[in-house]
Design a protein that fits this description.
302 residues, binds uridine-diphosphate-N-acetylgalactosamine, 39% helix, two-stranded parallel sheet, 2 domains, seven-stranded parallel β-sheet, alpha/beta
Length: 302
């Protein structure tokens, strides 16, 4: 992607900021972010930060201006928060998406949107193809399903060029460490402090962990590929058990931390893994960072 007018919503957040850094040297990058969970420090100096709200029509229209490509990463990302406050999730994740799509319709921008594996709920089998029925188990999943469907519908109804990317378990540098962090962050922090790593349940549940730089690559391919109105899984097509993950993190951290087991987490999905054949065929996407390498890098830099 070069010489393009780009808007990144949520560009002060984990994935959006990583994307902004990747694009800012060769493109004109604007970030729209209310900095409620993201931070201005994460935004590259050469990008224009517009502090605004994706739920506000004027904010979105102003920030989008005459963008050619929009990456819509702004979201309320916590599943548990969405369970506690479905209204907040709907507002940011659905209303916010609608404002972005409406503004894009005015300037005919191409829109790449962050969807989620959460739309599948408990899958019948893994790896999960995009044709798997959607059956979300949280307001967050339902809201991402609405985003995913709006993206398709805006292409069908209005001819808008949209691509929805269904992220699996994303990890990597810059991911915030808090109560809503992914398991990798939590385990790394514990291993670093020689505190026990708590595995929920028997630990034989599996996940497809995808590095944020591969997510960034998928976004760039989606922005430039000759496709529209499509949705794609973005993962690695590989899965590990949480037990294996815990061992890997303890080993690479050279930590004395113990691995302990606790009650299974309520509503936890047993197995999750992306079938990435569609994105591989349509867009030439292949993951480039193995989980081992990703973890080695995180251990080395933090
Ligand atoms: C991830 C995403 C979510 C959504 C979903 C799609 C994160 C933080 N969440 O939820 O946004 O996309 O995938 O299905 O990326 N675990 C432990 N110990 C801990 C923490 C977690 O054993 O201290 C287990 C947990 O029970 C689960 C696995 O690790 O089986 C992954 O948990 P997670 O919270 O990182 O992510 P997940 O898959 O629930």
């Amino acid at each position: 992607l070069v010489d393009t007018d780009v808007l990144i919503t949520g560009g002060a957040g984990f994935i959006g900021a990583r994307l902004a850094h990747q694009l800012v040297d060769d493109n004109d990058v604007t970030v729209l972010d209310d900095c409620s969970s993201g931070t201005p420090r994460a935004v590259p100096d050469d990008a224009t930060l517009v502090r605004g709200d994706v739920r506000d029509e004027a904010d979105v229209v102003d920030a989008m201006d005459s963008a050619d490509i929009v990456f819509h990463e702004a979201a309320l990302v916590s599943i548990s928060q969405s369970v506690e406050d479905p209204r907040a999730s709907h507002d940011r994740n659905v209303r916010g998406t609608l404002e972005v799509l409406e503004a894009a319709r005015r300037c005919d921008a191409r829109v790449v949107l962050a969807s989620s594996a959460a739309i599948y709920g408990h899958p019948d089998a893994v790896p999960i193809p995009e044709t798997h029925p959607a059956d979300p188990t949280s307001p967050y999943g339902l809201d991402k399903l609405a985003l995913d469907e709006y993206a398709r519908l805006y292409h069908e109804l209005y001819g808008l060029e949209t691509v929805a990317l269904r992220y699996f378990n994303v990890y990597g540098p810059g991911q915030p460490v808090n109560d809503y962090s992914g398991v990798i962050n939590i385990f790394l922090e514990r291993a670093r402090n020689d505190d026990p790593l708590t595995v929920f349940g028997d630990g034989e549940q599996t996940r497809d962990f995808v590095h944020v730089d591969d997510i960034v690559r998928a976004n760039v391919l989606a922005a430039t590929g000759d496709v529209a109105g499509e949705a794609y899984n973005v993962g690695t097509g590989r899965r590990v058990t949480i037990n294996e993950l815990a061992d890997m993190i303890v080993r690479h951290s050279e930590s004395d931390a113990a691995v302990v087991h606790d009650e299974p987490r309520e509503g936890d999905i047993r197995h999750s893994c992306a079938d990435i054949s569609k994105i591989s065929e349509h867009l030439g996407y292949e993951p480039t960072i193995s989980l081992e390498d990703g973890i080695r890098e995180l251990v080395a830099t933090e």
